[in-house]
Each structure stands twice: as C-alpha cells, then as structure tokens.
Amino acid sequence: LEFAKRMVNSGRLSLPTAYRASPLSTPDTATDAWAGGPAAGASIPDAPLAGVAGKSFLSETLGDDFTLLLAGIDTPDCPPGVSAVRIGIAGTRNFAGRFDARGGPAYLVRPDGHVAARWRTPNRRTIEDALHRALGR
Questions:
Q1: Which distant-in-sequence residues (6+ apart) come within 8 Å of 125 by Cβ?
Q2: Closest listed residue to residue 89, CA positions, set 78, 77, 98, 81
Q3: Mean pLDDT for the chain overall
Q4: What's the predicted TM-score (pTM) here?
Q5: How many helices (H) and strands (E) does the chain have?
Q6: Which of residues 61 and 43 earns the better pLDDT score?
Q7: Which residue, 63, 65, 59, is CA-closest to 79?
Q8: Is pLDDT of 5 > 70?
Q9: Reduced to 3 states, what is the DSSP secondary structure of residue 50?
Q10: What sign results for the dihedral spanned by CA atoms 89, 93, 97, 102?
Q11: What share of the chain is helix, strand, coil (3-state, %, to 5)?
C-alpha cells in the first residue's frame, strides 16, 4: 500500500485555476500599488472573520451574484447585480494579510469566487466597468 500513496491526489496538492489573461478580468491600474492579495482572475483565499453578519468565514459572505468586498471603507454606490460586504479590519488579521488590506481596498468577486477587479479607491463607474467586462459586455 505504501507505493499507492504516491499516486493518490488527496486534493491538498491541487490549486485553483487563475484567469489572469482573461478578457473578463479587469487589470490593476498603474495608480494602485499592491504588495499582495489576489489579483484579477485569481480565486479568493478564504479567511476567518469576526462579526460579519454572524458569518465565520469569508466564503460564507459571498452570494450568488457579484460581491464587492470592502476592507474597512464605506460602501460606494453599487450598480444592480452587485452586493457589498464591508469587512472591518479590527479582529480580521487573516483577511488583512491575505488581501493586502492597507488603505481600505475593494475587490469585485465573481459568483464563482474569482476576482473580477480590485481597487484602492473604487467608485460606481469603475465598478460598473469591471462588472460589464466580467459579463462580457
């Protein structure tokens, strides 16, 4: 049985596909500096959260539509089809580290859990543009 262990993929070695070159992903702007966090096209890493509507993990806050994850900043005016989830930085060290949350970024997450776009200072226009791009419009 020892020889067979090498041939079994228990799932721990697999990684999600990143769609960085996809025309549906909005690339980062030159004015936004990122030291980490998932780029457009990458799947979001899950993170434990404290006090977000009774949820305990980031993946539990995502709905069936596009979700705008906001790290400690006020919710901008979101277009239809986008729900906003504001995550306070206090007590969410794992989120802050995994999403380069300094300065209060925002991530537009597709229904499949991949990042459609990310910004340091989002507004309705940039969110709408990224949403239309992710929908192939």
A1: none
A2: 98
A3: 82
A4: 0.82
A5: 3, 6
A6: 43
A7: 65
A8: no
A9: strand
A10: positive
A11: 20, 25, 60
Residue recorded with tokens 């070159």? 21
Other CB atoms closer than 10 Å to residue 22's CB: what's the count? 14
Q: Which amino acid is at 126?
A: T
Identify residue 111 by its one-letter amino acid code.
Answer: P
Sheet of 82-87, strand order: 82-87, 66-71, 106-109, 115-119
Which two structure tokens, joined as six digits, stand for 72? 């400690």
For 123, counting Cβ atoms within 10 Å of its Cβ (0-12 exposed, 13-18 middle, 19+ buried), the class is exposed
Q: Which residues, listed in sequence order, are joined to residue 85 by a DSSP beta bridge?
A: 69
Return the structure tokens found at 95. 């989120």
Q: Are residues 59 and 113 in contact, defined by beta-carbon separation less than 8 angstroms?
A: yes
Question: In the structure encoding, which two tokens stand for residue 28, read together?
Answer: 């980062």
Q: Residue written as tokens 């997450």?
A: 109
Neighbours of 24 (CB within 10 A): 15
61: which DSSP letter?
G
Rounded Cα gap, residues 13 and 21, in angstroms: 23
